Amino acid sequence: MQHISEKWLKRFNYLYILYSLIILALYAVAAFNQQTPVIKNVNTWGMGPGTAIFALSCIIFNLAFMRPVKRYNLWLAYVISYILVSITNVAATELALGSSGEYVFIGMTYTLSLLSITLGPIIGIGVLTISAVITGMVVAENIEPTALGVTNDMIAFGVRSIIVITGIYLLHNKYETSSFGAKQNYIERYFVSNEVVSLLTNSISDGVIIIDQNEVVRSINPAAQKIINQPAKNVIDLNYRSVLKLKKINGTAIEDNEEPILQALKSGKPVNKELLLQVPGLPEIFIDINISVIADEQTKEIYGATIIMRDVSNRKKEESARSDFISTASHEMRTPVAAIEGYIELALNEKVSRIDDTAKKYLEKAKMSTEHLGRLFQDLLASAKAEDGRISNRPQVIEIGKLFEQQAEMSKMAAQQKGLQFEFIISPGGQSSRSSAKTISPLYYVLADPDRIRELASNLIDNAIKYTPSGKITLGLTGDKDVVQFFVKDTGVGIAQEDISHLFQKFYRVDSTDTRTTGGTGLGLYITKEIAELYHGRVWVESEKGKGTTFYVNIPRMNTAQAEASIANDQNSSN
Ligand code: ADP
Predict the structure, then answer these.
(1) Which residue, judged by its Cα, is nearest atom 3 of ligand 1?
(2) Between vectors from CA 504 to CA 502 and to CA 507, what angle results, nearest 5°?
(3) What are 434-484's pLDDT values in tens digits?
(4) Nearest to 473 by CA among 483, 454, 455, 486
(5) 128 near 167, Cβ under 8 Å?
(6) Does ligand 1 lie within 6 Å of residue 495's CB atom?
(7) What three-state secondary structure class fits 486?
(8) N or C terminus: fewer CB in 10 A for the chain?
(9) Phi, psi for residue 358 in degrees, rounded to 5
(10) pLDDT tens, 114-123?
């Protein structure tokens, strides 16, 4: 069973339906002219009851039987439709023989035999064989030639053969082998018509949708029907995108490279996300969606995917109320804390107040704790914002190398105060370079808010300084044509393997003697991750306990020419 992608089969099938409808319309006109529903005098256009019956059967097949046959075997369904329309055409050609309409139907015959290539070499060569037999019979004078005459019929057959064989040769990579039928049957047998699977999915309260590798919905359980507010019959056999209208949590559209179902089908790996779902006639809901692919265990060939979804709108509402509360509370509490800090500063200032050494010692401790409290409120506020997608973000084209030069200056001072070395390295990375008088430095453009990138880098550098008792901190910048990568490397206490997977969670702090004594909120890395993801980037860590840690961040890189054009454009419009 061979064919090209279903998308094209479907499009060609629309042509067959259209052709059948035109034939029926021609028949209706002829019947009207002859004042009888059953035409007796076949007209120039070859309209007779035979033609109409085949055209009608093609339409009835598409309306009533296409779906069930498709479920059994997709390829067979399109072949039947193709055969019905071909017979309609043959009938019309035969009946129009010797009249002016014949040329139209001969033209259609050639077009249909070309379309047969889409159904695969078997059908294509089968069609050619049949017409070879007919041409042979014409030459042998067993049947009449078409309006073209014997010689032209032979030439036309030769041309057709060359076109069909060339088409089959050009498309040979696009043809799927019998595994397509196997894939359909696998999903059908084990997931769609399997009673145990149906009982199981019908009994669980999470929504379950099964799609095949063509993204077509093959099964949907009652919970999913409730979530999308549609009965099964409205969604089965449709592309899942017309069934699940997904948006990002913040209400913006999802690009294809972030679309979780496509991601899963492409990568073969499970994907879990929280997204907004548009439900017809109801308000949007928040869903937690889990996609796992259905694949052959040995060949890893993907047959389809299981989509499991849960309405988490209530939980989201609670979370939003909680983060609103945290935002307001931390915002309000920062003001008195800043006042306390100010008064302690005044008390410690020898020009303003006179205190003895013991009081000074206590006040210095109070100052440290107040600073810690101030940072905690700031981090709480930032994390509450990150949680509900309110991170302040004014993206612009920025050159990370330049931004980091300033950042490195400040961090170098902080590192040196603790007796640590600090180094900033820019490595070449794929795209064109700008040469200045002394150096040639690669340009690393990204589209992001400079404040957020500074926040992200300083979170990582501050941690490196905090968790490195002695040695060196390196801030590195590199990349390739698609991404800008920077890393913060230290020679500090390191992180145990079991802690690594939790590091980016909120409030997670490694509990060890090395880190317990260092003040922190456990929110910095969570905020760092949220910022990286805001710019479609990612952050990860490599570390060895006792040896040191390297945090890496990848952010999509902007093409230098594009970035410079965009900067020039902004400058022009602001002038
Ligand atoms: P905080 O530093 O405020 O505790 P973070 O979210 O920034 O919170 O970091 C979480 C935890 O990760 C820290 O408590 C620390 O244990 C560990 N950590 C982060 N960066 C480093 C590093 N460079 N070296 C060792 N441990 C680190």
Answers:
(1) 520
(2) 85
(3) 444 445 568 899 999 999 999 999 999 999 999 999 999 999 999 998 999
(4) 486
(5) no
(6) yes
(7) strand
(8) C
(9) -60, -50
(10) 888 888 888 8
